Fold:
Amino acid sequence: MVSSRRVERPKLRAFLVIALVISAIFAGWTWLRPYEWRPDPGARCKVVGTQVKKDFKNFWVDVHLKVNPGEQHDLMKPVRLVTGAGREIEPADTTLGGDAKSGTTDIWFKFWLEIPDMEDSLTLKLNDGALAIRKSRGLPRLGSSNVEFFTTCRW
Structure:
């Protein structure tokens, strides 16, 4: 059976081009948006991403930082992850990345958090500033793998 209504090709082509342009703009925006729009310059770093992994009833939170060009992370100052309730948590592990010429360019901090810690915002205090790690409330949705990598502080 042949439909009596025919789609005009120029209109269909224009619709598809517009849909493609809108999709490309959205993909570019999600790819290029920063983790946090205005990171604290006193922290001397910016957050690249955060990986959250559920481990039984608790969570491992890995924070990847990129050191700002021309600045250095002060290894003598304490680093703390502060929960919305005010609890301060020391990193369970710290990994530094870089080379002798450029110094430390990347830092990874790993934190062990309990369920109440994950139900509110998280702020990373380092150097002379603070960075928002999480601004949302409630437990994060991790899917069936119990691991998720977040590229924005709204998770």
About this structure: The first helix runs from residue 9 to 32. The first strand starts at residue 45 and ends at 55. The chain has a mean pLDDT of 90. The CA atoms of residues 50 and 63 lie 5 Å apart.
